Every structure is written in C-alpha cells, then in structure tokens.
Amino acid sequence: MVTTESFNPEEFRRIATSLVLGDSSEASFRTAINRLYYAVFLATREALGISGSRTIHGRVYGELRRYDRLAGERLQRLFELRLLADYVLDVADPLRNDWQRNYQMARRLANFVLERLR
After folding, report:
1. pLDDT higher than 90, residue 22
2. What pTM did the predictor assign?
3. What pLDDT sits at residue 3?
4. For the domain that residue 86 is a member of, what is the CATH number?
5. Is 65 a member of any domain?
6. Is position 79 within any domain?
7. Rounded CA gap, 37 and 86, in Å?
8. Does residue 5 belong to any structural domain of this protein?
9. pLDDT tens for residues 77-105?
10. Is the pLDDT of residue 54 over 70?
C-alpha cells in the first residue's frame, strides 16, 4: 500500500492494545510492549524534532529529560521493559516474569509520557 501521508506512531499503540485483547499469551504481551515502546519513542522523537538514526534513542532520552525529567525517566523505563520483552527469554526474577503485569506497567509508562508531550 502506497501512501503520501506520514505514518502515525499511534497506530503501534492501537496494535499493542488489539494484540492483548484477543490473546493473553506471553508472546502477545511481549510484542505489545515492543509496539508501545516504539509508539512512544517515535512520537517523542517527532515532538522534539530529532532526526537521524545513529545513537538516536540516547539522544531522544537526553532531550526529553532536559524538557521533562520525569517523562524522560519513564521513557527510559519503557525502553528497559522493551529490552526485557525482546531479548530475555528466561527471566529469573518472578516479579519481572509476569508479562501481563509488565504490559500494564508499559501501558502506564506510555500513557504518562504521551500525556506530558501534549
């Protein structure tokens, strides 16, 4: 599908929600966390007018922290949850191995950052 409009990162957030509504598997929660992170990261990057790809995540966190320290910290925490969801297959800590809980935390973090961007 070819479009001339820019992609809206909010689409990733909607996909995250639909993933867990129809399926409560670990894979769905992990994938939803990933999509939530990228929805917020891309919205933040656009709001701050940051471009490029090299070290972009660190640049976005740093800029956001200068603008709003709490929002920057929440985005960093969301990034950490995304790394856990994407790369750690065997989570030893039982508190971090509850993927429904992790998703709910990711959703709260995402909502916080997006609200602060408005």
Report:
1. no
2. 0.90
3. 65
4. 1.20.120
5. yes
6. yes
7. 11
8. no
9. 999 999 999 998 988 877 678 999 999 99
10. yes
3-state SS track over 45-100? HHHHCCCCCCCHHHHHHHHHHHHCHHHHHHHHHHHHHHHHHHHCCCCCCCCCCCHH
CB contact at 8 A, 12 and 36: yes
83, 20, 101, 10 alpha-carbon torsion, rounded to 10°: 60
The Cα–Cα gap between 22 and 36 comes to 17
10 Å CB burial of residue 19 (0-12, 13-18, 19+) is buried
Range of the domain at 70: 10-117
Looking at residues 43-51, what average pLDDT do you find? Answer: 94
Q: Of the ranges 54-63, 65-74, 93-102, which one carries the lowest mean pLDDT score?
A: 93-102
Give the integer Cα–Cα distance in Å for 90 and 75. Answer: 24
DSSP category for residue 5: S
Segment 104-114, tens digit of pLDDT: 999 999 999 99
Angle between helices 69-87 and 26-48 (to 10 degrees): 140
Residue 2 included in any domain? no
